[in-house]
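User: Let's play a game. I give you a shape written as tokens, and you guess the letters that built it. Ready? Here's round one.
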């Protein structure tokens, strides 16, 4: 069930004073106060529905997965304006990722939570995890930033600009932005092996390669469940990832840091994660980096559950 709290006074990074910001969230597993709390941050097109039949990370967060749902309280906020929180943003650039992290921290305080066991998220949700821990260095015992970066790389800014151009100029902006995004979420190898140049005959329909039909399917599917205004909000948030300028500035985080990277990720590339880890682990003891080996690229955080669960599980013991 989606619940709502109101954040009373908030000054955004842009310097705008805002009052009464609705922040919606879901809780799964044991009620708040009865088990260690895990805050889960969603990515670009995600939402607060993490677990259960429709939950987007239900293969990670379940008694069979890496985070046993019977033993950990899962708290997940909707990013304001993501289209699942009942609001529609008039200005997609009103919040930065740092603003969202501040709002989530205020939300946690509002719910009376003083200790968080873990903050976890992947992709933009992973960057949000870095940002929350950087803003509130003692908030969580451990953090899991997965397939993400603490600062938008020039490569990510390149892809974001393409996304913005498509959103501004296409006659079917959400579909076309999704198609381009899917090409960043997979690898050439993943698509080449899967589709192998095939072209299924479709009676009475335009003849397309299977990969083209798959891309169009994803474009059309997103249009059915996502608002254009929300996609613009989320695209701006991706653009605004700027926790700090150098990895050494992340040392102020007091939580144990468990980074996870995907060796074939074309969006948040593995070499950047290794650089961050090398710099951080030189200065700080409690940092680890695990690598998911996959041909699929960025999407592997939603596909390679055998590996992801194996990495995460030892950090979520059953008490
Ligand atoms: C900055 C950030 O935060 S980025 C992070 C954002 N990440 C995302 O949004 C994730 C995007 N990726 C997806 O959504 C992926 O589909 C995943 C990772 C969830 C699942 O990947 P896969 O298991 O390979 O599934 P796949 O992509 O093939 O999707 C399956 C669907 O495609 C359909 N499909 C498969 N092949 C074709 C084809 N040739 N033509 C048309 N449809 C097809 C299937 O019928 C199925 O439909 P259904 O979901 O309605 O049942």
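Assistant: Ready! My guess for every position:
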């Amino acid at each position: 069930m989606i619940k709502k709290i109101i954040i009373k006074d908030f000054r955004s990074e842009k310097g705008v004073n805002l009052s009464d910001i609705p922040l919606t969230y879901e809780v799964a597993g044991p009620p708040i106060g009865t088990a260690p709390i895990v805050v889960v941050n969603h990515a670009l097109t995600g939402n607060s529905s993490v677990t259960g039949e429709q939950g987007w990370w239900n293969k990670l967060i379940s008694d069979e997965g890496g985070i046993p749902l019977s033993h950990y309280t899962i708290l997940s906020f909707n990013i304001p304006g993501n289209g699942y929180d009942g609001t529609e943003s008039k200005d997609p650039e009103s919040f930065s990722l740092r603003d969202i992290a501040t709002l989530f921290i205020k939300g946690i305080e509002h719910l009376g939570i003083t200790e968080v066991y873990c903050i976890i998220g992947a992709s933009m949700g992973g960057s949000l995890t870095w940002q929350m821990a950087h803003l509130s260095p003692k908030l969580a015992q451990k953090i899991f930033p997965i397939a993400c970066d603490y600062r938008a790389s020039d490569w990510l800014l390149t892809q974001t600009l393409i996304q913005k151009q498509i959103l501004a100029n296409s006659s079917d902006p959400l579909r076309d932005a999704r198609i381009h995004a899917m090409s960043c979420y997979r690898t050439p190898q993943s698509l080449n092996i899967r589709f192998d140049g095939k072209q299924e005959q479709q009676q009475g329909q335009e003849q397309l390669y299977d990969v083209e039909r798959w891309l169009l399917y994803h474009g059309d599917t997103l249009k059915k469940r996502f608002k254009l205004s929300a996609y613009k909000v989320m695209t701006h948030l991706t653009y605004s990832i700027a926790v700090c300028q150098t990895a050494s500035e992340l040392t102020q985080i007091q939580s144990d840091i468990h980074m996870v990277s995907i060796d074939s990720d074309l969006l948040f590339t593995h070499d950047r994660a290794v650089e961050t880890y090398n710099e951080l682990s030189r200065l700080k003891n409690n940092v680890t980096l695990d690598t998911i080996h996959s041909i699929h690229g960025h999407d592997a955080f939603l596909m390679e559950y055998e590996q992801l669960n194996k990495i995460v599980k030892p950090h979520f013991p059953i008490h």
